[in-house]
Design brief:
The chain is of the alpha/beta class and 329 residues long. Helices cover 32% and strands 23% of the residues. It is built from 10 helices and 13 strands. A hairpin with a 3-residue loop joins strand 12 and strand 13. The chain is globular, with a radius of gyration of 19 Å.
Length: 329
């Protein structure tokens, strides 16, 4: 018996915000943003929509794609770093919105920022392997509404991010062998490079925090670039080689959609053409934990995920954390 991705889903808000709109509010330009990031526009959720609302729509799309009902879910895991509120878990809100609370389906969140989706997939598969009778169908969702946590006057961060959600359904299969291979890592020495300085137990929200925007997202872009372009390509290569595969044998590489220029450099380091990846950052921006499943869904819709395709995933970001995955479609 194996484990496979039975279904894929995504949801992108309708509201588009292009670079010219950003440049009209802060000191930047469409030319600068495009040259440095490759981003042309991003999607922003409406004021009344929270992360769980986007996650729900991605989950419903995934269930439809997989051809099963919500009542058949045995576990829900949501990867997010922009939850509706500090507690409860977004996954519990999604469970309630799906109308399956009475099934007592476990639901919890994983927060490893932009690496969170790969961490969540690994967690879900681990539970499926350890208790196969209990966990047969596992919904893994990446969902973010970074528009709610950004300082829209900080051009070092606000030009990069957008809102969205993506989901995969992991299921057991009697007709397939094997399962997804993972390798995860973290380096807490870089924990200050990406994050929200205040709003938790270390520094609760007060008037001073609000005045200084310390409850908003911050990032040291230069050091994050160095981290990603130093670590990601070797991490993918090491995972592939551990399982007897050359990077050249990969049919598709799906990277966290942080920055198109970063993706181009990582693919060059892997000595792979851009034709072996799929990107969404140009039109959706950096959707953090949602970027890999959103991009995976695009690859599926474009027919890039054919039977037997060897696919590598890599998420990387705050923590600092990174997660790689290797699967056969």
């Amino acid at each position: 018996m194996g484990i496979w991705i039975r279904g894929l889903g995504a949801y992108i808000p309708e509201n588009r915000v292009n670079n010219h709109q950003i440049a009209s509010a802060i000191d930047t330009s469409d030319r600068w943003i495009t040259q440095k990031t490759g981003i042309l526009e991003r999607r922003i959720s409406s004021p009344e929509m929270a992360t769980s609302d986007l996650a729900l729509k991605a989950a419903e799309n995934c269930l439809e794609n997989a051809g099963i009902n919500a009542e058949e879910l045995d576990l829900i895991i949501v990867a997010t770093s922009s939850p509706d509120q500090i507690q409860p878990a977004v996954a519990c809100l999604v469970q309630e919105k799906l109308g399956i609370s009475a099934t007592h389906c476990p639901a919890f969140d994983v927060n490893s920022v932009c690496a969170g989706f790969v961490f969540a997939m690994h967690t879900g598969q681990g539970m499926m392997l350890s208790e196969p009778e209990q966990y047969r169908n596992v919904m893994v969702i990446g969902a973010e509404t970074y528009s709610k946590i950004l300082n829209w006057q900080d051009r070092k961060t606000c030009v990069f991010f957008g809102d969205g959600a993506g989901a995969v359904l992991l299921s057991h299969s009697e007709h397939r062998k094997g399962h997804i291979r993972f390798r995860l890592g973290s380096d807490g020495r870089g924990s200050s490079l990406i994050g929200i300085p205040a709003g938790g137990s270390r520094q609760p929200v007060n008037q001073s925090v609000l005045e200084q925007n310390l409850n908003k997202f911050t990032m040291d872009g230069r050091k994050v670039w160095e981290f990603a372009t130093t670590l990601v390509a070797p991490a993918i290569r090491q995972l592939a080689e551990r399982h007897g595969i050359s990077v050249r044998d990969l049919d598709l590489v799906i990277l966290h959609q942080a920055n198109l220029r970063m993706i181009e450099q990582i693919m060059e380091q892997l000595e792979l053409p851009m034709e072996k990846t799929v990107t969404t950052v140009q039109h959706y921006g950096n959707t953090a934990a949602a970027s890999i499943p959103i991009t995976l869904k695009k690859a599926f819709d474009e027919g890039r995920l054919f039977p037997g395709a060897r696919v590598a995933l890599c998420g990387f970001g705050g923590g600092l954390s990174w997660g790689t995955a290797l699967l056969e479609w």
